[in-house]
Amino acid sequence: MKKLVILGGGTAGTMMAAKMRQQLDPWSWRIQVVDRDNRHLYQPGLLFLPFGTYTHRHLHKPRSRFMPDGVELVLGEVDRIEPEENRIRFADGTRLPYDQLIVATGSRIVPEETEGLTGEGWGRSAFDFYTVEGATALRDTLAGFRGGRVVVNLVDMPVKCPVAPLEFLFLADAFFTERGVRDDVELVYATSLDAAFTKKRCSDALTGLIESRGIELAPSFMLEKVDGENRVMHSYDDRTIDYDLLVSVPLHRGSPVIARSGLGDELDFVPTDRHTLRAEAWENVWVLGDATNLPSSKAGSVAHFQAEVLTENLLAAISGLEPPAAFDGHANCFIETGHGKAILIDFNYDTEPLPGRFPVPGVGPFTLLEESEANHWGKMAFRWAYWNLLLKGADLSSIGPSMSMAGKWS
Ligand SMILES: Cc1cc2nc3c(=O)[nH]c(=O)nc-3n(C[C@H](O)[C@H](O)[C@H](O)COP(=O)(O)OP(=O)(O)OC[C@H]3O[C@@H](n4cnc5c(N)ncnc54)[C@H](O)[C@@H]3O)c2cc1C
Predict the structure, then answer these.
(1) How far apart are the C-alpha atoms of 47 and 130, rounded to whole Å?
(2) Is the CB of 20 inside a 6 Å radius of any atom of ligand 1?
């Protein structure tokens, strides 16, 4: 019997296990998903935790609940991949062989790599919201915050869900408005990007919104260090930004297992073919989700589109054929803008987000590059869709893996 091992039972790995189990003959192929624990975190929910919209009970479910019949969940910390031996090695020294391997080990924040960020004030006046601990501590601080200067800082790309810092600002604007203290709060977005977002057209739309919400934009702010004692951020070009409350979206890296395996680039992401999703260095290793070094967004929606492409390619490779399917960088993100509205963007490697209607061309119900209540409800419904459709490998045939131009105008 042959073995498919999926390293990482997060968003990408879980979806992929379900899809491959639907396709591979259970008498010929054993499927194992490896993760360090049995606790699946719905990461998009971390955005809502600080504002009290979600609680911890909305964020976690056991991973085992999403493993279909015929998929084994193997729990353990993986020390490294040994691709020349076709096996992975756990921290306790035990080994797990594979015929085909999918690496879906995600990405993580490394705030300690920015000088001073995790020093004085970390967890009291400076926070992240990309971890459960960070988002929870921030929630407790926001609950008692009555006024001052709140700075959201994107330290540098790549980060998961690059629109999340903007969403945080829009939700903060609504949160402080509802509490009647908005006039006492300054909101600032300090970003390493030269504009509000990476894509020009979307950036222009977001800049208009930022201005209309009274949020100050500080672009091209390359953070060098944080002086937590005096609550000041210093950039490499000697600019300073002071804060009462710093909400950091810190530097990201791939999983340490990638570095230990010698499989990564300088940020521990795996060099991956941008179309086939095969690891550049190994024929029987494939990469999915945040773990790749691709220029696509690090987002669950991207992992979903990639999973459809990879299913086709892996099945072909197993049959001795060349991988036929090409991932086009398709990404699809709701951007929560507060006050019960959101924007939706849909783009790929080559095409910027365009205005239009989605997913039914000309109808919607979602509006591209334009705020609407329907988009907000789409974002809120995403949690249900995540647990009940996406993780179970459901075929969402109305939204294909390749970006469609239908219903869009330029
Ligand atoms: C605040 C926030 C908001 C977001 N909002 C959105 C959104 O609105 N829409 C969207 O599409 N995406 C959003 N995302 C991004 C999305 O959550 C990620 O892109 C997605 O989860 C990536 O899936 P993945 O499977 O690649 O990684 P993960 O889901 O992180 O899974 C990686 C898995 O690998 C395991 N692992 C790693 N190393 C080891 C090891 N050595 N041994 C054993 N196990 C290991 C980990 O335990 C983990 O379970 C958001 C993320 C954040 C943080």
Answers:
(1) 8
(2) no
Between strands 252-254 and 215-218, the pairing is unpaired
Span from the CA of 8 to the centroid of ligand 1 (angstroms): 9
Same domain, 137 and 237: yes
Contact residues for 213 (Cβ-Cβ < 8 A; gap 6+): 169, 170, 173, 187, 338
Residues 117 and 154 in one domain: yes
Is 404 within the bounds of a domain?
no
Which of 5, 6, 7, 11 for a ligand 1 pocket mutation test, highest count of atoms within 8 Å of Cβ?
11
The predicted structure's pLDDT at residue 397: 61
Which of these, 362, 347, 404, lies nearest to 203 by C-alpha position? 347
- pLDDT tens figures, 227-249: 999 999 999 999 999 999 999 99
What is the distance in A from the centroid of ligand 1 to the CA of 321?
31
Alpha carbon distance 6, 175 (integer Å): 40
Residue 192: give the domain boundaries.
111-251
Rounded Cα–Cα distance for residues 271 and 265 (Å):
7
Identify whether residues 201 and 124 lie together within a single domain. Answer: yes
For the chain, what percentages of helix, strand and coil (3-state, to nearest 5) are there?
30, 30, 40
Alpha helices in 76-223 (DSSP H): 132-143, 164-178, 200-212
Considering the domain boundaries, does residue 323 fall inside one?
no
Compute CA 378 distance to the chain's CA centroid, rounded to the nearest angstrom.
18
Low-confidence ranges of the chain (pLDDT < 50): none
Residue 386 CA to residue 394 CA, distance in Å, equals: 10
Q: Residue 103 pairs with which residues in a beta bridge?
A: 7, 287
So what's the pLDDT on residue 401?
86
Q: Looking at residue 286, what is its pLDDT? A: 98
In a domain, 186, yes or no: yes
- Co-location of 199 and 279 in the same domain: no
Q: Last residue of some domain: 199, 223, 251?
A: 251
**Residue 324 forms part of a structural domain:** no
* Tally of domains in the chain: 3
